[in-house]
Write a structure and sequence with these properties.
The chain is α/β, with parallel strands linked by helices. Helix content is 38%, strand content 18%. The chain is built from 19 helices and 19 strands.
């Protein structure tokens, strides 16, 4: 989990797991009524939801998208109770109802079914379409609530506690802990057993969202619904529909609900899922927006991207040399997504090097702005929309005659930077709201500095370099970062984000994505050096730039877990498109880091040499929009170096050097 420290950390630091993936989903009860009672029941349930607060100016309008739906935040048990009331009322209004639907003679409490299928014992049981009345009608009318208050306003802590208790929830901390424990346990199980745990965790997070209206809970619920759907793709319908409806609720957008449900229906081959989706689509038909029939795959499929005008924006595109591209078709693998409000990163794994073309499309009709990347001679089957959230709403993949098309659906036109990482080959797509425009001249010698990212190298199953006595690089780097972060916050008043604050693995691609999403002014990646002969001593710093230095390439190769040739290829490929003002400031930060660290060490360790500032192709620095430095603190591979790095005093002096360097950079030195 990323940790944020400092004045702005609470607002700017990404939430656990949800900082780089933001979408939402909704669940609720299905009520058994005849089709003739659907609309009336929906109106009444919506009236219960929309008018229950008794506040002035509340109300609802059928077929109208309101400005707020905070009462839709009622917990699931309340909605079930409301649904039962609707049934009883409907039965009173229609004396012939029992004759038409004999099964309705059972108590109303037994006529409530979940929209999500039961996944117990590996089975996927949908409610019978002949006996289930979709609460999509409730959604249709409730989304039309017209209110004056702000949507999903967070309730005070005391009120939230009372509401949680009334909803049958444990205190927030316990509920969050249980949801997280379920998600962690699910991640370690096979898909058959993981899906029910993901569903239960999603339900807990969603119920918290209904009580407290915290966006973070909705985002976590969405992520968990996605994981539940991905765990068992053949039985994804229930979680996917739950997610689609919650997203529509949070955005107050029944049009979105129609699109999402329609997409899920088209994707599913399960007759029960399609029947359930048909009910929803019928109830939401008033919100259907005419659009091309291939909405889900239009520009991700066979439709040519040239049908739209290029969108504003632009940015560098770095493709591999044609000579290094294999003539055999490549195949798309995993697609990683790291989303945030102002920036996002999408990483497409490909089996071997491939060429690609990039274009931006302006908003057109019901389609928003898009970024289209065509991977040439690359195989990949069309897949469902991959939710991201924030600047990138979703990612779609579709087959093309020339290869595979990857489409990023954007919330607004964005600046792009598209490049590749050599080993393993992957395409990196960075987008941001604002293009890098260089840096303004220092005012009074000072530089603006609000946020700093510290990146403790390695972690989890990646220990990094190990000393002769067993000291691990990942432990040293995390401790140094933990020592420096509070000093930066307390002494300099800057918000500080750690890309990891525990012994967990974070991919190199994600570390830079977190820094970009945080809007950091500086990025310092902390490492311990190592040499092949087990010796070495001194402090060294690196910036991303072209280089023919073989030693630097070897060090970068070790940190990248790739070859020296790959590190050199990356550095030289990106050097022509790097923002030179960012490179210059990175070099200045590296120089200050060297100077401040040696000054901190000198009183007790005067013999530590200055190995200077060097250039190399470090993956963790690629794509950083701010001055970024990789800091090799000392050589853990030598016995003397390991002994020093094992002491709290030496680590504190390294942390002091980092803090003093950031202070000097801020002061314009």
């Amino acid at each position: 989990m990323a940790a944020a420290v400092g004045a702005e950390a609470g607002a700017a630091g990404p939430a656990t797991g949800a900082a780089f993936a933001s979408v939402t989903g909704m669940t609720g009860a299905l009520v058994t009524l005849t089709i003739g009672e659907l609309v009336t029941a929906g109106e009444e349930a919506a009236g219960l939801l929309c008018g229950a607060d008794g506040g002035s100016g509340t109300g609802w309008s059928r077929g109208t998208v309101g400005t707020s739906s905070s009462q839709l935040g009622r917990n699931r048990s309340e909605r079930r109770s409301a649904s039962s009331s609707v049934i009883d009322s409907a039965e009173r209004r229609s004396a012939s109802l029992s004759a038409i639907e004999p099964e309705l003679k059972v108590p109303s409490a037994t006529r409530v079914a979940q929209i999500r299928p039961s996944t117990h014992l590996g089975r996927n049981v949908f409610p019978s379409s002949s006996r289930s009345v979709s609460r999509f009608f409730v959604l249709v009318f409730a989304l039309g609530c017209a209110r004056t208050e702000a949507p999903h306003e967070q309730v005070p802590a005391s009120a939230a506690t009372a509401l949680a208790s009334a909803a049958g929830l444990s205190p927030r901390a316990e509920t969050v802990a249980r949801a997280d424990a379920l998600a962690i346990a699910a991640s370690k199980l096979d898909p058959v057993h993981a899906a029910p745990l993901f569903i239960e965790a999603a339900e807990l997070r969603e119920r918290l969202f209904r009580v407290e209206h915290r966006e973070a809970d909705a985002l976590e619920a969405l992520e968990l619904w996605d994981q539940a759907a991905e765990a068992r793709p053949a039985e994804r319908c229930g979680p996917a529909l739950s997610r689609a409806l919650l997203e529509a609720e949070v955005r107050h957008d029944p049009v979105l609900a129609y699109r999402q449900v329609a997409a899920e229906r088209a994707r599913s081959l399960d007759a029960r899922c399609r029947a359930l989706a048909d009910e929803a689509l019928a109830s939401l038909s008033a919100f259907r927006v005419p659009e091309p029939p291939t909405d889900e795959a239009a520009d991700a499929g066979s439709s040519p991207a040239t049908t739209s005008e290029p969108a504003p924006g632009g940015g560098p595109v770095v493709v591999p040399d044609k000579a290094g591209v294999n003539a055999e078709p490549a195949t798309i693998g995993e697609i990683e997504r790291y989303g945030a409000k102002d920036a996002a990163r999408v990483v497409v794994h490909v089996t071997h090097p491939a060429l690609f073309e990039v274009r931006s499309l302006a908003a057109e009709g019901s389609n928003g702005p898009r970024l289209v990347v065509d991977l040439l001679n690359v195989r990949g089957k069309s897949r469902g929309a991959l939710a991201v959230g924030g600047l990138v709403e979703r990612v779609r993949v579709g087959a093309q005659p020339s290869g595979t098309r990857v489409v990023l659906d954007l919330s607004q036109p964005a600046y792009r930077r598209v490049f590749y990482l050599p080993e393993p080959f992957r395409l990196v797509i960075d987008v941001s709201k604002q293009p890098p425009t260089g840096f303004a001249p220092n005012v009074g010698g000072a530089r603006p500095l609000r946020r700093v990212v510290l990146d403790p190298g390695h972690g989890g199953n990646d220990p990094g370099a190990t000393g002769p006595g067993g000291l691990r690089e990942k432990d040293v780097t995390l401790d140094v970062a933990h020592r420096a972060a509070p000093l930066l916050a307390r002494e300099l008043g800057v918000s500080t984000l750690l890309t990891r604050d525990t012994d967990t693995y974070v991919a190199l691609d994600e570390r830079t994505a977190r820094a970009n999403a945080f809007g950091a002014d500086l990025l310092i990646s902390i490492h311990c050096n190592a040499s092949e002969d087990g010796g070495g001593k001194g402090v060294m710093s690196f910036v991303l730039d072209g280089s023919r230095d073989t030693l630097s390439a070897r060090i970068a190769a070790r940190e990248n877990s790739a070859s020296a040739a790959a590190a050199s290829e990356l550095a030289n490929a990106l050097s022509s498109v790097l923002d030179r003002s960012v490179v210059e400031r990175s070099e200045r930060l590296a120089e200050l880091l060297q100077r401040a660290t040696l000054a901190s060490l000198a009183p007790r360790y005067p013999e530590v040499p200055d190995l200077g500032v060097r250039r190399a192709g470090f993956y963790v620095l690629a794509g950083a929009t701010m001055p970024a430095v990789l800091f090799e603190t000392s050589f853990i591979s030598s016995a003397p170096g390991e002994l020093r790095l094992a002491t709290p005093d030496y680590r504190q002096k390294l942390a002091d050097g980092i803090v003093n360097a950031v202070r000097a950079y801020r002061d314009g030195r």
